[in-house]
Design brief:
With 486 residues, the chain is an alpha+beta fold. The protein has three domains: 1-98 and 442-486, Uridine Diphospho-n-acetylenolpyruvylglucosamine Reductase, domain 2, CATH 3.30.43; 105-223, Uridine Diphospho-n-acetylenolpyruvylglucosamine Reductase, domain 3, CATH 3.30.465.10; 227-416, FAD-linked oxidases, C-terminal domain (Vanillyl-alcohol Oxidase, Chain A, domain 3). It contains 16 helices and 19 strands. Strands 12, 13, 14, 15, 16, 17, 18 and 19 form an eight-stranded antiparallel β-sheet that branches.
Length: 486
């Protein structure tokens, strides 16, 4: 059973009003068009929207939200749809607002080291543009060549360079967004210091489209590192690779990147890109050090010593920029490579304190054996963020249920270790039944109160992160296969 929403199926009069707001060429409600926007990157979750809208400016978004409040339908904002927690999956009686056409880089301010962008700008394109002038935008989600800045902000996306450079929130200086009542909020700016009132900017980052629709983002950029060294280390034992990560951090060295791949993932990547990865290795660490001059060489040599101490069977150093890029590209293909193995790929996102990483890797291995599920494991080892990935088949209910039990075990173990249920993907639909265990009842209730005050009619991306009452009897956890028909 599910929460009962105060929404009725949208009538033709409402659809006509929406069409008049955005114009015939920006309104779509055919079966085929709605089907395309009925799901995101999260497997097994889908729901048909009533219509798909491509608003052209802030005023159109404002008018859509005002109409939604009047006629009680839901609005779900969407970027590229690469999310992995069901955050942009439509709900019953909803329209989807798509922002991928809002893709302009509006200003690059080299004096203040800022860049102003629309939410539909692709992350990888932004990186390439600022690097042309010797600048650097560090956040780099695995889907950087597809995902958008608006989605990154909505989910506080991380990426491979999170260990040294942090995540999206560390680079957001200001946000403009349309609130659920249709008002335009502008917060933040180019000041490096600003403590006037509540920090609304950080409040918005990670809100998963539940508090407003982002229309502009002001980002901090930094000088591009002068030197980069990329290392690849092979291990015969999984535990040795995990201990190497802990030892590198304990040595007070902060690589820009420290990525982990287990044997299942190694073999899937090698099948996919064929770059000569060792199929018998239990684990690989991809490590990158960047900065200026001799300090980069010194850190690289210390890291090599630590890797050798922890029984790395082989250590490779990229000799050219193209080789370094090839190694990083191989890591970025992990999800795609794993997805070729079975019909359904469920990629999750468990994070623990870095000191607990060896234990967490063992717990994920235990889960795969205990519940008889094929799990490939990879992730950002340097910041304790792992991506256990179940390779299964959603057509087989028993297989899917085993995967659910395996992930329940993994998330519970992560919480026991002082970790969290998501480091960068967001809570969305797929993990909201874990939120109370992580944040506690007071924490969840505070989040609900904030949502209720800002979005009085619960029209903006309802049902994501947590459930607003009235709830179904017993407040049963929502499963992927249940969400299929909200």
């Amino acid at each position: 059973m599910f929460e009962k929403k105060n929404f009725t199926i949208m009538n033709s009069n409402t659809k006509s009003k929406l069409k008049s707001l955005v114009g015939d060429t920006n309104y779509f409600d055919s079966y085929e068009d709605r089907l395309v926007y009925s799901y995101d990157g999260t497997p097994t979750l889908h729901q048909m929207p009533e219509a798909v809208l491509f608003p052209q400016d802030e005023e159109q978004i404002s008018q859509i939200l005002k109409l939604a409040n009047e006629e009680k339908f839901a609005v779900v904002p969407r970027g590229a749809g690469t999310g992995l927690s069901g955050g942009s999956v439509p709900v019953e009686n909803s329209v989807v607002i798509v922002l991928t056409k809002w893709n302009k880089i509006l200003e690059v301010d080299e004096k203040n080291l800022t860049v102003l962008v629309q939410p539909g700008v692709i992350t990888g394109i932004l990186q390439k543009e600022v690097e042309k002038i010797g600048l650097f935008y560090p956040p780099d989600p695995g889907s950087l060549n597809v995902c958008t800045i608006g989605g990154n902000v909505a989910n506080n996306a991380g990426g491979l360079r999170g260990l040294k450079y942090g995540v999206t929130k560390n680079y957001v200086l200001g946000v403009e967004m349309v609130l659920p009542n249709g008002d335009l909020l502008k917060t933040g700016g180019k000041n490096m210091k600003d403590v006037a009132g509540y920090n609304l900017r950080d409040f918005i980052v990670g809100s998963e489209g539940t508090l407003g629709i982002i229309t502009k983002v002001l980002l901090k950029i930094i000088p591009k590192p002068a030197k980069v060294i990329t290392l690849l280390a092979y291990f015969d034992k999984l535990t040795d690779s995990a201990q190497a990560v802990s030892d590198i951090i304990a040595a007070h060295i902060t690589p820009s990147m420290m990525e982990f791949l287990d044997n299942t993932t190694i073999n899937c990547i090698e099948d996919y890109v064929k770059i000569g990865l060792p199929r018998n290795s239990e684990a690989i660490l991809l490590i990158e050090v960047d900065g200026k001059g001799s300090a980069v060489d010194e850190d690289s040599e210390i890291i090599k010593t630590i890797l050798q101490k922890n029984k790395a069977s082989l250590i490779r150093t990229a000799t050219t920029e193209s080789e370094s890029l090839q190694l990083k590209t191989a890591r970025r293909t992990a999800f795609s490579a794993l997805a070729r193995k079975k019909p359904t790929t469920i990629l999750e996102d468990a994070t623990v304190p870095r000191s607990e990483l060896p234990i967490m890797i063992e717990k994920i291995t235990q889960s795969a054996k205990q519940f008889d599920v094929m799990i490939g494991n990879f992730g950002h080892a340097g910041d304790g963020n792992l991506h256990p990935t179940a390779l299964t088949d959603e057509r087989d209910k028993k297989e899917i249920e085993k995967a659910h039990r395996a992930f329940d075990f993994i998330f519970n173990e992560a919480i026991k270790l002082g970790g969290t249920i998501t480091g960068e993907h967001g809570t969305g639909l797929s993990k909201k039944h874990f939120l109370e265990k992580l944040a506690g009842i007071p924490g969840v209730e505070m989040m609900k109160k904030i949502k209720s005050v800002i979005d009085e009619n619960n029209i903006l991306n309802p049902g994501k992160i947590f459930t607003i009452s009235p709830r179904c009897e017993g407040s049963l956890p929502i499963r992927r296969e249940q969400i299929k028909d909200l």
